[in-house]
Amino acid sequence: MKYKNIYVAATSQHVGKTTSTLGIVSYLIKKMVNVGYCKPVGQQFLDIGNLKVDKDIILFADLLGFEMNPDWHSPVILGKGATELFLDNPDEFDYQTKILQAKEALEKQHEMVIYEGTGHPGVGSVAGVSNAKVAKILDAGVIMVVEGGIGKTIDMLNMTTALFRENNVPILGVVINKVLEDKISKVQTYVNKWLEKENIPLLGVVPYDKTLAYPLMETVTSAIKGEILHNAHKMENKVADIIAGTPIETNKIRNPEDLLLITDTKYIIKAIDRLRMMSYMYKLDGSPLCGIVLTGQKKYDEEALEYINKYQIPVIHTQLDTYSAVLKISRIEVKINRHTPWKITRAIRLIEDNLNLDGLLVSV
Hints:
The chain folds into 2 domains: about 5-210 and about 335-360, Rossmann fold, CATH 3.40.50; about 215-330, Udp-n-acetylmuramoylalanyl-d-glutamate--2,6- Diaminopimelate Ligase, Chain: A, domain 1, CATH 3.40.1390.20. It is an alpha/beta fold. Helix 11 (about 300-310) links the parallel strand 14 and strand 15 (about 315). The protein has 13 helices and 15 strands. About 40% of the residues are buried.
Protein backbone atom coordinates (compact mmCIF):
# COMPACT_ATOMS: atom_id res chain seq x y z
CA MET A 1 0.00 0.00 0.00
CA LYS A 2 1.14 3.55 -0.74
CA TYR A 3 0.56 6.47 1.64
CA LYS A 4 0.69 10.24 1.31
CA ASN A 5 4.23 11.41 1.96
CA ILE A 6 4.91 13.85 4.81
CA TYR A 7 7.13 16.91 4.94
CA VAL A 8 8.08 18.04 8.46
CA ALA A 9 8.64 21.80 8.49
CA ALA A 10 9.03 24.36 11.26
CA THR A 11 8.43 28.04 11.85
CA SER A 12 12.13 28.56 12.66
CA GLN A 13 15.31 26.76 13.67
CA HIS A 14 15.63 24.75 16.88
CA VAL A 15 11.91 24.30 17.56
CA GLY A 16 11.78 20.52 17.22
CA LYS A 17 11.75 19.28 13.61
CA THR A 18 14.10 16.39 14.30
CA THR A 19 12.36 15.51 17.58
CA SER A 20 8.98 15.43 15.80
CA THR A 21 10.36 13.50 12.85
CA LEU A 22 11.86 10.86 15.15
CA GLY A 23 8.51 10.33 16.85
CA ILE A 24 6.58 10.19 13.58
CA VAL A 25 9.00 7.69 12.03
CA SER A 26 8.90 5.52 15.17
CA TYR A 27 5.08 5.61 15.15
CA LEU A 28 4.98 4.48 11.50
CA ILE A 29 7.44 1.65 12.18
CA LYS A 30 5.16 0.40 14.95
CA LYS A 31 2.24 0.57 12.50
CA MET A 32 4.25 -1.77 10.24
CA VAL A 33 4.61 0.86 7.52
CA ASN A 34 7.64 0.53 5.28
CA VAL A 35 8.86 4.09 5.83
CA GLY A 36 11.77 5.95 4.28
CA TYR A 37 13.53 9.15 5.28
CA CYS A 38 15.10 12.03 3.36
CA LYS A 39 16.56 15.46 4.14
CA PRO A 40 16.04 16.95 0.66
CA VAL A 41 17.85 20.20 1.44
CA GLY A 42 20.53 20.33 4.13
CA GLN A 43 22.77 23.12 5.39
CA GLN A 44 25.22 21.35 7.70
CA PHE A 45 26.90 18.24 6.36
CA LEU A 46 29.41 15.59 7.33
CA ASP A 47 32.05 13.95 5.18
CA ILE A 48 32.02 10.21 5.84
CA GLY A 49 34.57 8.52 3.66
CA ASN A 50 33.56 9.69 0.21
CA LEU A 51 29.98 10.47 1.30
CA LYS A 52 28.79 14.02 1.92
CA VAL A 53 25.46 13.93 3.76
CA ASP A 54 23.41 16.14 6.04
CA LYS A 55 24.25 15.33 9.66
CA ASP A 56 20.67 14.25 10.47
CA ILE A 57 20.92 11.42 7.93
CA ILE A 58 23.19 9.43 10.25
CA LEU A 59 20.61 9.51 13.04
CA PHE A 60 17.83 8.14 10.83
CA ALA A 61 20.13 5.64 9.10
CA ASP A 62 20.67 4.13 12.56
CA LEU A 63 16.95 4.18 13.38
CA LEU A 64 15.72 2.74 10.09
CA GLY A 65 18.75 0.62 9.26
CA PHE A 66 19.36 1.92 5.76
CA GLU A 67 22.66 2.32 3.95
CA MET A 68 23.31 5.99 3.36
CA ASN A 69 23.03 7.12 -0.25
CA PRO A 70 23.58 10.88 -0.64
CA ASP A 71 21.65 11.00 -3.91
CA TRP A 72 18.59 9.53 -2.19
CA HIS A 73 18.78 10.71 1.40
CA SER A 74 20.58 14.06 1.12
CA PRO A 75 20.32 15.21 -2.51
CA VAL A 76 20.95 18.96 -1.99
CA ILE A 77 23.48 20.51 0.41
CA LEU A 78 23.49 24.30 0.70
CA GLY A 79 26.67 24.61 2.71
CA LYS A 80 28.93 27.58 3.22
CA GLY A 81 29.34 29.58 0.00
CA ALA A 82 26.52 27.76 -1.82
CA THR A 83 24.43 30.91 -2.21
CA GLU A 84 27.21 32.82 -3.99
CA LEU A 85 28.01 29.86 -6.24
CA PHE A 86 24.37 29.51 -7.24
CA LEU A 87 23.87 33.22 -7.93
CA ASP A 88 27.04 33.36 -10.04
CA ASN A 89 26.09 30.31 -12.16
CA PRO A 90 22.46 29.25 -11.54
CA ASP A 91 22.32 27.07 -14.66
CA GLU A 92 24.95 24.75 -13.18
CA PHE A 93 22.75 23.74 -10.23
CA ASP A 94 19.64 21.76 -11.13
CA TYR A 95 18.55 21.17 -7.54
CA GLN A 96 14.94 20.40 -8.38
CA THR A 97 15.90 17.50 -10.63
CA LYS A 98 18.10 16.06 -7.86
CA ILE A 99 15.19 16.22 -5.41
CA LEU A 100 12.79 14.59 -7.88
CA GLN A 101 15.28 11.79 -8.57
CA ALA A 102 15.60 11.14 -4.84
CA LYS A 103 11.80 11.10 -4.53
CA GLU A 104 11.46 8.58 -7.36
CA ALA A 105 14.14 6.28 -5.93
CA LEU A 106 12.75 6.34 -2.38
CA GLU A 107 9.13 5.84 -3.43
CA LYS A 108 10.15 2.68 -5.28
CA GLN A 109 11.61 1.34 -2.03
CA HIS A 110 9.00 2.49 0.52
CA GLU A 111 5.28 2.76 1.14
CA MET A 112 5.73 6.21 2.63
CA VAL A 113 8.58 8.73 2.87
CA ILE A 114 9.12 11.28 5.63
CA TYR A 115 10.97 14.36 4.41
CA GLU A 116 12.56 16.64 7.00
CA GLY A 117 12.82 20.34 6.20
CA THR A 118 15.59 22.72 7.12
CA GLY A 119 15.47 25.99 9.05
CA HIS A 120 12.41 28.19 8.57
CA PRO A 121 10.07 27.77 5.57
CA GLY A 122 11.93 30.31 3.42
CA VAL A 123 15.38 28.71 3.72
CA GLY A 124 16.66 27.80 0.24
CA SER A 125 14.49 30.35 -1.58
CA VAL A 126 17.49 31.95 -3.26
CA ALA A 127 18.21 28.64 -5.03
CA GLY A 128 14.58 27.83 -5.81
CA VAL A 129 14.35 25.19 -3.07
CA SER A 130 12.52 26.81 -0.17
CA ASN A 131 10.77 24.39 2.16
CA ALA A 132 7.43 25.30 0.61
CA LYS A 133 8.72 24.80 -2.94
CA VAL A 134 10.35 21.48 -2.06
CA ALA A 135 7.19 20.17 -0.37
CA LYS A 136 5.31 21.05 -3.58
CA ILE A 137 7.90 19.26 -5.74
CA LEU A 138 7.61 16.19 -3.51
CA ASP A 139 3.80 16.24 -3.52
CA ALA A 140 3.90 15.89 0.27
CA GLY A 141 1.56 17.11 2.99
CA VAL A 142 3.15 19.31 5.65
CA ILE A 143 3.34 18.96 9.40
CA MET A 144 4.30 22.34 10.86
CA VAL A 145 6.22 22.43 14.14
CA VAL A 146 6.03 25.62 16.21
CA GLU A 147 7.32 26.57 19.64
CA GLY A 148 4.71 26.92 22.36
CA GLY A 149 2.96 30.14 23.31
CA ILE A 150 -0.22 31.90 22.20
CA GLY A 151 0.14 35.26 20.45
CA LYS A 152 3.63 34.74 19.10
CA THR A 153 2.84 31.16 18.15
CA ILE A 154 -0.24 32.18 16.15
CA ASP A 155 1.68 35.02 14.47
CA MET A 156 4.46 32.64 13.43
CA LEU A 157 1.98 30.08 12.12
CA ASN A 158 0.10 32.69 10.14
CA MET A 159 3.29 33.95 8.50
CA THR A 160 4.97 30.63 7.80
CA THR A 161 1.96 28.64 6.60
CA ALA A 162 1.32 31.42 4.04
CA LEU A 163 4.32 30.21 2.01
CA PHE A 164 2.84 26.73 1.78
CA ARG A 165 -0.63 28.06 0.95
CA GLU A 166 0.86 30.07 -1.92
CA ASN A 167 2.27 26.83 -3.32
CA ASN A 168 -1.00 24.92 -2.75
CA VAL A 169 0.67 22.54 -0.32
CA PRO A 170 -1.74 21.00 2.21
CA ILE A 171 -1.05 21.47 5.92
CA LEU A 172 -1.79 18.09 7.53
CA GLY A 173 -1.44 19.38 11.05
CA VAL A 174 0.45 21.46 13.60
CA VAL A 175 2.68 20.34 16.47
CA ILE A 176 3.09 22.83 19.31
CA ASN A 177 6.39 21.97 20.95
CA LYS A 178 8.26 22.93 24.15
CA VAL A 179 5.27 24.05 26.20
CA LEU A 180 5.63 24.41 29.97
CA GLU A 181 3.47 21.89 31.81
CA ASP A 182 1.30 24.48 33.55
CA LYS A 183 0.63 26.28 30.23
CA ILE A 184 -0.40 23.27 28.12
CA SER A 185 -4.16 23.54 28.59
CA LYS A 186 -4.25 27.28 27.93
CA VAL A 187 -1.97 27.10 24.88
CA GLN A 188 -3.94 24.21 23.43
CA THR A 189 -7.28 25.98 23.89
CA TYR A 190 -6.35 29.32 22.35
CA VAL A 191 -4.05 28.24 19.53
CA ASN A 192 -6.59 25.63 18.51
CA LYS A 193 -9.26 28.35 18.19
CA TRP A 194 -7.15 30.00 15.49
CA LEU A 195 -6.28 26.70 13.84
CA GLU A 196 -9.93 25.69 13.59
CA LYS A 197 -10.69 28.94 11.73
CA GLU A 198 -7.90 28.08 9.31
CA ASN A 199 -9.15 24.48 9.01
CA ILE A 200 -5.78 23.14 10.20
CA PRO A 201 -5.74 20.16 12.60
CA LEU A 202 -3.84 20.40 15.88
CA LEU A 203 -1.94 17.15 16.23
CA GLY A 204 -0.99 17.83 19.83
CA VAL A 205 0.98 19.83 22.36
CA VAL A 206 4.37 18.52 23.48
CA PRO A 207 5.62 19.51 26.95
CA TYR A 208 9.01 21.11 27.38
CA ASP A 209 11.62 18.58 28.50
CA LYS A 210 14.81 20.21 29.69
CA THR A 211 16.81 16.99 29.32
CA LEU A 212 16.64 17.34 25.53
CA ALA A 213 18.60 20.58 25.90
CA TYR A 214 21.46 18.98 27.84
CA PRO A 215 24.74 19.34 25.89
CA LEU A 216 27.60 16.84 26.07
CA MET A 217 31.05 17.72 27.34
CA GLU A 218 32.39 17.39 23.80
CA THR A 219 29.89 20.04 22.67
CA VAL A 220 30.98 22.29 25.53
CA THR A 221 34.63 21.84 24.55
CA SER A 222 33.90 22.85 20.98
CA ALA A 223 31.85 25.90 22.03
CA ILE A 224 34.63 27.34 24.18
CA LYS A 225 37.50 26.11 21.98
CA GLY A 226 38.79 24.20 24.96
CA GLU A 227 41.74 21.89 25.48
CA ILE A 228 41.12 18.53 27.16
CA LEU A 229 43.46 18.11 30.12
CA HIS A 230 42.12 14.96 31.81
CA ASN A 231 39.73 12.03 31.22
CA ALA A 232 39.07 12.50 27.52
CA HIS A 233 37.15 9.20 27.52
CA LYS A 234 34.35 10.94 29.47
CA MET A 235 33.51 13.56 26.85
CA GLU A 236 30.04 12.10 26.32
CA ASN A 237 29.02 13.07 29.85
CA LYS A 238 25.82 15.15 29.76
CA VAL A 239 25.61 18.61 31.32
CA ALA A 240 22.41 19.26 33.28
CA ASP A 241 23.39 22.54 34.92
CA ILE A 242 26.28 24.95 35.49
CA ILE A 243 27.89 26.04 38.73
CA ALA A 244 30.38 28.85 38.34
CA GLY A 245 32.87 30.85 40.40
CA THR A 246 34.15 30.22 43.89
CA PRO A 247 31.24 30.47 46.35
CA ILE A 248 29.15 27.44 45.34
CA GLU A 249 25.78 27.95 46.97
CA THR A 250 24.76 24.36 47.64
CA ASN A 251 21.32 25.37 48.97
CA LYS A 252 20.36 26.76 45.55
CA ILE A 253 21.17 23.57 43.63
CA ARG A 254 17.98 21.64 42.95
CA ASN A 255 19.43 18.53 41.37
CA PRO A 256 22.99 17.64 42.43
CA GLU A 257 23.79 15.53 39.35
CA ASP A 258 25.62 16.12 36.08
CA LEU A 259 26.84 19.58 37.12
CA LEU A 260 29.51 21.45 35.17
CA LEU A 261 31.92 23.43 37.31
CA ILE A 262 33.39 26.53 35.67
CA THR A 263 36.08 28.21 37.74
CA ASP A 264 39.43 29.93 37.67
CA THR A 265 42.15 27.38 38.45
CA LYS A 266 43.27 29.28 41.56
CA TYR A 267 39.87 28.62 43.18
CA ILE A 268 39.54 24.94 42.34
CA ILE A 269 40.53 23.63 45.81
CA LYS A 270 37.86 25.78 47.46
CA ALA A 271 35.33 24.56 44.93
CA ILE A 272 36.25 20.91 45.54
CA ASP A 273 35.88 21.40 49.30
CA ARG A 274 32.34 22.66 48.71
CA LEU A 275 31.64 19.76 46.35
CA ARG A 276 32.72 17.25 49.00
CA MET A 277 30.33 18.94 51.41
CA MET A 278 27.58 18.72 48.79
CA SER A 279 28.19 15.01 48.27
CA TYR A 280 27.88 14.48 52.02
CA MET A 281 24.75 16.63 52.28
CA TYR A 282 22.98 14.86 49.41
CA LYS A 283 24.36 11.43 50.36
CA LEU A 284 26.03 10.94 46.98
CA ASP A 285 28.30 7.97 46.34
CA GLY A 286 30.43 9.96 43.93
CA SER A 287 30.93 13.50 42.69
CA PRO A 288 28.02 15.68 41.49
CA LEU A 289 30.19 16.84 38.59
CA CYS A 290 29.99 15.77 34.95
CA GLY A 291 32.98 17.95 34.11
CA ILE A 292 35.17 20.91 34.95
CA VAL A 293 36.01 23.94 32.80
CA LEU A 294 39.10 25.76 34.01
CA THR A 295 39.98 29.35 33.23
CA GLY A 296 43.25 31.07 34.05
CA GLN A 297 46.34 28.89 34.43
CA LYS A 298 46.41 25.21 33.48
CA LYS A 299 48.34 24.05 36.54
CA TYR A 300 46.71 23.04 39.82
CA ASP A 301 47.87 21.07 42.83
CA GLU A 302 47.79 17.34 43.49
CA GLU A 303 44.75 17.48 45.79
CA ALA A 304 42.59 18.67 42.91
CA LEU A 305 44.06 16.08 40.53
CA GLU A 306 43.40 13.31 43.07
CA TYR A 307 39.69 14.29 43.22
CA ILE A 308 39.47 14.56 39.42
CA ASN A 309 41.01 11.14 38.83
CA LYS A 310 39.09 9.44 41.62
CA TYR A 311 35.75 10.33 39.99
CA GLN A 312 36.94 10.27 36.36
CA ILE A 313 35.93 13.89 35.77
CA PRO A 314 36.78 15.35 32.35
CA VAL A 315 38.69 18.63 32.66
CA ILE A 316 38.75 21.29 29.94
CA HIS A 317 40.90 24.40 29.86
CA THR A 318 39.80 27.52 27.97
CA GLN A 319 41.42 30.86 27.22
CA LEU A 320 38.12 32.55 28.05
CA ASP A 321 37.47 34.07 31.46
CA THR A 322 34.87 32.44 33.70
CA TYR A 323 32.06 34.85 32.80
CA SER A 324 32.64 34.50 29.05
CA ALA A 325 32.80 30.71 29.32
CA VAL A 326 29.46 30.63 31.16
CA LEU A 327 27.86 32.80 28.47
CA LYS A 328 29.21 30.66 25.63
CA ILE A 329 28.04 27.42 27.22
CA SER A 330 24.64 28.84 28.16
CA ARG A 331 24.00 29.73 24.52
CA ILE A 332 24.74 26.30 23.09
CA GLU A 333 21.98 25.09 20.76
CA VAL A 334 21.69 21.34 21.23
CA LYS A 335 20.72 18.89 18.50
CA ILE A 336 19.76 15.26 19.01
CA ASN A 337 22.35 12.92 17.51
CA ARG A 338 23.56 9.33 17.72
CA HIS A 339 25.81 10.22 20.69
CA THR A 340 22.75 11.02 22.81
CA PRO A 341 20.70 7.79 22.81
CA TRP A 342 18.73 8.82 25.89
CA LYS A 343 17.53 11.88 23.95
CA ILE A 344 16.41 9.76 21.01
CA THR A 345 14.38 7.51 23.31
CA ARG A 346 12.91 10.47 25.17
CA ALA A 347 12.04 12.40 21.99
CA ILE A 348 10.21 9.41 20.54
CA ARG A 349 8.28 8.90 23.76
CA LEU A 350 7.28 12.57 23.96
CA ILE A 351 5.88 12.60 20.43
CA GLU A 352 4.10 9.26 20.71
CA ASP A 353 2.55 10.19 24.08
CA ASN A 354 1.33 13.65 23.10
CA LEU A 355 0.38 13.62 19.42
CA ASN A 356 -2.53 12.04 17.61
CA LEU A 357 -0.89 10.69 14.46
CA ASP A 358 -3.57 8.25 13.32
CA GLY A 359 -4.88 10.62 10.64
CA LEU A 360 -1.52 10.72 8.85
CA LEU A 361 -1.96 7.33 7.24
CA VAL A 362 -3.72 8.47 4.08
CA SER A 363 -3.59 5.96 1.22
CA VAL A 364 -2.96 7.19 -2.32
